[in-house]
Amino acid sequence: MMGGHHAASGAAAWVAVTATAPFAFGWHPVSYVGVVTGSVVCAGAALLPDADHHDGTIANSLPPVSHWVCRGVEKISGGHRHGTHSVVGIALMTALAWLLGHWRLHTDRFGTIELGAGLMTILLASYALKALKLVPGRHFAPWTGSLVMAAFVALFAPDEWAWLPLAVGVGCVVHVFGDMLTTNGVPLLWPWTPRPPRRWRRMNGPNDIWRSGGNMALPVLGDAGSVREWILLVPVSAYALLGVVWALLEQMGFDTGAVWASVVAAVTPG
């Protein structure tokens, strides 16, 4: 799946999981500020598994340091679409977010400063803004936008950082699932990558699901960047945008419930 599509999927998943709007599941409700900022952070987290790609969005985010880091991740994880695209990779990245969330600085003048959460939010928001092309420019603008967002949360909703590990976990899960929907699949059980028996490999249908190299796939989208992928991501992106706009309107005091009731009444037969 393409980088921008991963990011849009992450934002949509965050809306579905955390928003209290009538079109969301609301399994882990957060504030309206949390829905808006978390959607951007989760979109960035949905790019994290591609830190194993030496020429991906993350690798090009802060050269040359990001290049060195991604080459290191690529080497440790076994290459692109290996360790970071597995259950182990998801768990490690979520655990890292949790650990960073405990990196705090206590000051007399400014109180407790959430250094780890703030730093990770800046990085993830920058990745998302760049992948989604929400800000102009390739280097300066995404970092500026992410700094503004982190400062906004720090000033107006300092307790919002609690959802950071969840955002990272959801984003990584969405990324891995998205790549599972493409032809090559992912090594979900890495470092254990069991290969199918020969008889299985001779069957065209099953071999597309349990790949000869050990990857698992549900290749309904075909190759990454396919027309089917683009068609799917149109409603997914629209859903994410609707959730963010809805949360913004709620934060500003609009009666979104009445609007939703009117829409439902208009589309309901009879």
UniProtKB/TrEMBL annotation:
The chain crosses the membrane at residues 85-103, 109-128, 140-157, 163-192, 230-249. InterPro entries: YdjM-like (IPR007404). Keywords: Hydrolase, Membrane, Transmembrane, Transmembrane helix. The keyword Cell wall biogenesis/degradation does not apply. Pfam families: YdjM. It comes from the Bacteria. GO terms for molecular function: hydrolase activity. This is LexA-binding, inner membrane-associated putative hydrolase. It comes from Luteimicrobium subarcticum. The lineage of its organism: Bacteria, Bacillati, Actinomycetota, Actinomycetes, Micrococcales.
